[in-house]
């Protein structure tokens, strides 16, 4: 029996099982088994030489956004309108067969936009090159899920389910669970608050399913069984997602208003070029890019080419900014002067832990090198040794 057949068999058993207090331990074990099998499904087959044909493109710019959706929802048209890169669009499905990159120039930054082939139901099991598409989405900073506003609402649930099956968690934060494997000592289970979804016995059963018999587990929030399995697996990617409803020009105003009020959703029309500026603003807001302008000592700030930081790529502190400029700069920093919304007064003397905001101006002051030979009139101009005993003795005079 293959892995896919095993997963379907366990899912059928979970559908048959009633959910109550007596069966929650059994359902928890089944969820752990499915998570293990899906991880095996993503691993390359043993003995395979090299990776298969994928469409991974090299990272470029200050951020990466992936377009994901069913075939013929307007992804290629949206890429062409936002970036100017020509992506073939036609009235039949699967027009795009590979990954087509484009660059959005917005607020003095460069954002890479990837047009991916349409995915279908069963993409997490490899149908329609779905695994390669989702692998590219995992390396992105933001996912734009393009949906057809005239189609049923079930498309959104299908796509979310396919992405979650391969370890992508959309618009979620990592659970506050501390987990560490140990060599000896058994399983230590603790929590800082009352738990309603998981108890000690269920945690033990899930860990034994993974053949873990010595570990330390600490719950800092009321997490579910799925959250615990995600922490044990350790290969989940938590990523932001914006649901983009295209083709709003073919539905009524009441439906447009209902879709626009849903969380993390925005409505557009590529045909009539409606609301594209708001889509770019929403992308900028979700990515959280921070532009920092440098100011040399005694000169005006350089507003032409900002340094772009983000919380997802390193962080936004002064130390991260120094590392962005040069790796060795942190050791030479004496203090930093900051102007902008992060400063309480202008200029503010900052340390390395100061968090910078968008469009701040920063001046880095380096430590002065210490002079070895003293200062002023005490400075020695000789290059010889300082101690008399270290000097070379002259040869004795010939008599």
From TrEMBL:
Keywords: GTP-binding, Nucleotide-binding. PANTHER family: DEVELOPMENTALLY-REGULATED GTP-BINDING PROTEIN 2 (PTHR43127). Pfam families: MMR_HSR1 (PF01926), MMR_HSR1_Xtn (PF16897), TGS (PF02824). Gene3D superfamilies: 3.10.20.30, 6.10.140.1070. One of its GO terms (molecular function) is GTP binding. Residues 366-375, 388-399 have a biased composition (Basic and acidic residues). Residues 366-399 are annotated as: Disordered. It comes from Salvia divinorum. This is GTP-binding protein. Residues 63-288 form the OBG-type G domain. Residues 288-366 form the TGS domain.
């Amino acid at each position: 029996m293959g892995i896919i057949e095993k997963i379907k068999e366990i899912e059928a058993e979970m559908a048959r099982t009633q959910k109550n207090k007596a069966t929650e331990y059994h359902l928890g074990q089944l969820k752990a088994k499915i998570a293990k099998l899906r991880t095996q499904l993503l691993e390359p087959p043993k003995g395979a030489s090299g990776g298969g044909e994928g469409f991974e493109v090299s990272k470029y710019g200050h951020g990466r956004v992936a377009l994901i959706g069913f075939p013929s929802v307007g992804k290629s048209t949206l890429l062409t309108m936002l970036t100017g890169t020509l992506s073939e669009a036609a009235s039949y499905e699967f027009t795009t067969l590979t990954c087509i990159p484009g660059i959005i120039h917005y607020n003095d930054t460069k954002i890479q936009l990837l047009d991916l082939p349409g995915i279908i139901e069963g993409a997490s099991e490899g149908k329609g090159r779905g695994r390669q598409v989702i692998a590219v989405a995992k390396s992105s900073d933001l996912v734009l899920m393009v949906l057809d506003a005239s189609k049923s609402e079930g498309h959104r649930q299908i796509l979310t389910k396919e992405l979650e099956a391969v370890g992508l968690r959309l618009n979620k934060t990592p659970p506050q669970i501390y987990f560490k494997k140990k060599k000896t000592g058994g399983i230590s289970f603790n929590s800082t608050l009352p738990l309603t979804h998981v108890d000690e016995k269920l945690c033990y059963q899930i860990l034994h399913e993974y053949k873990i018999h010595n570990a330390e587990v600490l719950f800092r929030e009321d997490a579910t069984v799925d959250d615990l399995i995600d922490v044990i697996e350790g290969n989940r990617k938590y990523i932001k997602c914006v649901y983009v409803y295209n083709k709003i020009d073919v539905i009524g105003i009441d439906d447009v208003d209902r879709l626009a009020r849903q969380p993390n959703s925005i409505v557009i029309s590529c045909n009539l070029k409606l609301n594209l500026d708001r889509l770019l603003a929403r992308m900028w807001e979700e990515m959280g890019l921070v532009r920092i302008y440098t100011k040399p000592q005694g000169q005006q700030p350089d507003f032409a080419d900002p340094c772009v930081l983000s919380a997802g790529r390193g962080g936004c502190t002064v130390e991260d900014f120094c590392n962005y400029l040069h790796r060795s700069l942190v050791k030479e920093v004496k203090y930093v002067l900051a102007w902008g919304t992060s400063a309480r007064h202008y200029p503010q003397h900052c340390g390395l832990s100061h968090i910078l905001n968008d469009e701040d101006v920063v001046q880095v002051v380096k430590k002065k090198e210490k002079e070895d030979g003293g200062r002023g009139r005490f400075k020695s101009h000789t290059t010889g040794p300082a101690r008399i005993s270290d000097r070379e003795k002259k040869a004795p005079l010939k008599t």
